[in-house]
Amino acid sequence: MKIIKGGVTAAKGYFAAAVAAKIKYEGRTDMAMVYSEVPCVSAGTFTRNIVKAAPVKWDRDVVYSQAKPQVVVVNSGIANACTGEEGMGYCKETAKACAKALNVDKAGVLVASTGVIGMQLPIDRICNGIDALAKELDRSIEAGNKAAKAIMTTDTHEKEVAVTIEIDGKEVTIGGMSKGSGMIHPDMCTMLGFVTSDIAIAKELLQEAVSEIVDDTFNMISVDGDTSTNDTLLVLANGMAGNVEITKKNEDYKKFYEALRYVNEELAKMMAGDGEGATALFEVKVIHAKTKDEAKVISKSVITSSLTKAAIFGHDANWGRILCAMGYSGAQFDPEKVDLTFESAAGSMQIIENGVALDYSEEEATKILSEPKVTVIADIKQGEETATAWGCDLTYDYVKINADYRS
To answer: CATH 3.10.20.340 residue ranges in the chain?
Structure first.
């Protein structure tokens, strides 16, 4: 696998564009489009919050049907959530506008929105934006980057990643973009994520791969414990790499699976590290657990602990908060066998052994915890399973951002 520059336009046959449609923001782009020159097979995962935005309901129907999408259109600023029948009507109007502007099947148009809940979309601006986007479509890496910027809300930077692999003697590319900074505690994937590939693969296998990968990537991040109404991950594959279609779980499938997992994990970590107001990516690895599920439960419990997140912000080696969060996770383990280690670019330090503090330097621990990425390794000595979760520290700015969000 080779990591390359780019995002959603890295794979063959994909175009992107961004425009300033004035959906809610002034002075910045707020609509994006991703387009494939040929129809794609699609897969997706969506929020399990029972309060679902209209685009989530729309995209589920498209992905779970036999439609072959060619276009995704995204707006930021307004979420089109809790908008009733009118909100579903906006999705239909968006699809019609895309079909007209691009000469594609409206049944396969995918839509996504992010922003304030409860506001109605200015559909005239959306439709005007679609016309403008269709004229700006470009296959360049820069066009993909502009699209990644247009979908941001409180994100501080765009999130993109792309890789190439060789399958059946052909170069296959996978690229993606995502956005998300707050209201992130996915129960499926992320706020918004879009992954494109030129691989030829059966739709059922693509969906199976996406569903499995999400559980170990986007479902293992948290910023604030809030599962969004709009969580959507869409994956498109247009087959333009020219490989023989993957129809079973052979070595080619495994190679693609690992590359797709890498793309999703990198996008997930970017989101966790860019949590609203965050100064650090907080990674928790649970090792030697009895089961994978127990390792996941424990690691997520630690990254979602407000007290632990605050300690990371203060560069405070308050290991008691970590052990406490592990203890109320619901997983069973012996606290008197737990070892905890802090790691970062500044070094590595074990702070407790068998549930008891070691004689460590607080000054050295603070130095380790002052880096932009901090890792806690929890060895619970029960088995051979491992899981990793990603979060961020909790800062004063998180409260400021969310106190002012609607204004």
So the answer is: 281-403
For Cα atoms 174, 233, 81, give the angle at the middle one, nearest 5 degrees: 150
Give the residue ranges of the annotated binding site. 153, 179, 190, 276, 402, 407
| Cα–Cα distance for residue pair 149/402, rounded to 1 Å | 21
Binding-site residue set for substrate: 153, 179, 190, 276, 402, 407
**From CA 168, how far away is CA 284, in angstroms rounded?**
37
pLDDT in tens, 313-352: 999 999 999 999 999 999 999 999 999 999 999 999 999 9
Q: What is the CATH number of domain 281-403?
A: 3.10.20.340
Task: Let me know if 190 is a catalytic residue.
Answer: yes
Active-site choice (47, 164, 173, 190): 190
Dist CA 264 CA 191 (whole Å): 13
Q: Which CATH code is given to the segment(s) 2-273?
A: 3.60.70.12
What are the start and end residues of each CATH 3.60.70.12 domain in the chain?
2-273
Computed over its alpha carbons, how large is the radius of gyration of the chain?
Answer: 22
Which carries the bigger pLDDT value, residue 227 or residue 324? 324
